[in-house]
Design a protein that fits this description.
The protein is α/β, with parallel strands linked by helices. It has a single domain, classed as Amidase signature (AS) domain (Amidase signature (AS) enzymes, Alpha-Beta Complex). It contains 17 helices and 11 strands. The protein has helices at 2-10, 16-34, 42-57, 100-107, 150-157, 174-180, 214-224, 268-283, 299-314, 327-331, 338-349, 352-365, 371-391, 417-421, 428-433, 465-475, 481-484; strands spanning 37-40, 69-73, 111-116, 163-167, 183-186, 207-211, 254-258, 287-291, 397-401, 437-447, 450-460. The protein has an 11-stranded mixed beta sheet with strand order 1-3-2-4-6-5-10-11-9-7-8, with helices on both faces.
Length: 493
């Protein structure tokens, strides 16, 4: 889709301003029901679009992403634009700098339509935990879009943005992509800089694209990857080239099927769709190999010990003193002690899920418990990585369901945090092992008089995004999202 839009812009069969207005009008028409966006930057988007049109009129070449309207998850900083992380504690915060991914996109002339909704501080699997309201699934508005990048996934699926950026800590790009019938890609940890991403769990977080197609995901990843002096976990590797080297091929590809992911808890209809895609791959010449990963069953336990521990550390900066909501300022209580301000600001402005994870993490890191919890979880994480290294000597990619069910109803799991956490049961292992993973549309299930999308997940070896993109492109099917949910053509202002 990005390539086709680029061609139209470059050949001047469509202007960037008109294209941007199509998507801004789509937001005005649809987002009151979906609530994918927390803020819309119409003035800035149209100004950038005009600048791109001027370049094209002068005969200048433009990059693939130049003039293409996109959306950014609201935990990624854009200078001069609100960055709330969907939390009341950052409700009035304006980012004073650009995240590295935004700097890279600025160099390529991307047009930012606005910032998208998420679970507060990216803590959730449904985008119901946002302090600013629930996002709804465009395919069925009684259903969740997944989380925590539910706003980004909904915006792309509903035709309110060509593509979007999300962040993935335990499946927060891939799971909403599956629920919304779009493509969601999490690069290898360290492939993309985290500088300017409001941190949740620093050894798990990774920025990645949500797009309509695998090809688009490769184009965006090319633009945002690379090392960064501001992030010492961003590794210097070959700089992209994923789109130029995209060669869809399944013949001779060894696809590993994780035995542990096809047991109890997997919805029968989802399992059937995944098995159909496995059969298709086999028909195309892929070699299907069942693999066992005995320690992968502990991925959820590792994640839900390490992640809250890192959350408790990262959220300590939101203290009501330096920036964000302050109980002392709002209540004009100069007589309060610093500790009072700290405690009351966090108590009033943090939601239930961040509080829950801070409490769990603080306990796990406390004296006498660190060795028993965080340190032990880190050791098991290394065991899972070792198993992954061994399995990738036998296979090229791993294939599994993205989520055990299609999108569930809003409110169904709100009162049961453990059941909500299990929505990420197939995705967290990629974050634990730090490997790249992608979710692509695989089919849909008829339910509640609507078609609920189902995604399949492919995981690849560290730094081998190219092989993952190639296999995903070959498995990609025409799901019809673009045709059904395209933006309005009304360009009136």
């Amino acid at each position: 889709m990005i390539k086709e839009i680029h061609k139209k812009l470059q050949e001047r069969t469509e202007t960037t301003v008109d294209l941007t207005m199509q998507y801004l009008n789509a937001i005005k028409e649809k987002d009151s029901d979906i609530h994918a966006f927390l803020s819309v930057n119409e003035k800035q988007a149209l100004q950038k679009a005009k600048e791109t049109d001027e370049k094209i009129k002068k005969g200048e070449k433009i990059s693939f992403l130049e003039g293409v309207p996109c959306a950014i998850k609201d935990n990624i900083c854009i200078q001069g634009v609100p960055a709330t992380a969907a939390s009341k504690i950052l409700e009035k915060y304006i980012a004073p700098y650009n995240a590295t991914v935004i700097k890279k996109l600025n160099e390529r002339g991307a047009v930012y339509l606005g910032k998208t909704n998420l679970d507060e501080f990216a803590m959730g699997s449904s985008t119901e935990n946002s302090a600013f309201g629930v996002t709804r699934n465009p395919h069925n508005k009684t259903r969740v879009p997944g989380g925590s990048s539910g706003g980004s996934a909904s915006a792309v699926a509903a035709g309110m943005a060509v593509w979007a950026l999300g962040s993935d800590t335990g499946g927060s790009i891939r799971q909403p992509a599956s629920f919304c019938g779009v493509v969601g890609f999490k690069p290898t940890y360290g492939r993309v800089s985290r500088y300017g991403l409001i941190a949740m769990a620093s050894s798990y977080d990774q920025i990645g694209p949500i797009t309509q197609t695998v090809e688009d995901a490769a184009i965006v990843t090319d633009a945002i990857c690379g090392d960064d002096e501001h992030d010492n976990t961003a590794v210097k590797r070959e700089k992209g080239g994923f789109y130029n080297n995209l060669k869809p091929e399944l013949r001779g590809v060894k696809i590993g099927i994780i035995k542990e992911f096809f047991g109890e808890g997997l919805d029968h209809s989802v399992k059937k769709i995944v098995e159909e895609r496995i059969s298709f791959a086999q028909e195309q010449g892929a070699e299907i190999i069942e693999v066992e990963l005995p320690h992968i069953q502990y991925s959820m336990a590792v994640y839900y010990l390490m992640m809250p521990s890192e959350v408790s550390s990262n959220l300590a900066r939101f203290d009501g003193i330096r920036y964000g909501f302050s109980d002392a300022v709002d209540n004009d209580s100069a007589s309060k002690t610093i500790l009072d301000v700290y405690l009351q600001s966090r108590a009033k402005a943090l939601g239930d899920e961040p509080k829950r994870r801070v409490i769990l993490g603080t306990y796990a890191l406390s004296a006498g418990y660190y060795d028993a919890y965080y340190k032990k979880a880190q050791r098991v994480r290394e065991l899972i990585k070792m198993e992954m290294r061994d399995v990738f000597k036998k296979v090229d990619v791993l294939l599994s369901p993205t989520s055990p069910t299609p999108a569930f109803k809003i409110g169904d799991k709100s009162d049961d945090p453990l059941e909500m956490y299990l929505a990420d049961v197939y995705t967290v292992s990629a974050n634990v092992a730090m490997i790249p993973a992608i979710s692509i549309p695989a089919g849909s299930i008829q339910e509640d008089k609507s078609q609920l999308p189902v995604g399949i997940q492919l995981m690849g070896k560290w730094w081998d995004e190219q092989k993952l993109f190639n296999a995903s492109k070959a498995l990609e099917i025409s799901y019809g999202t673009v045709a059904k949910l395209a933006p309005t053509k009304n360009c009136s202002r």
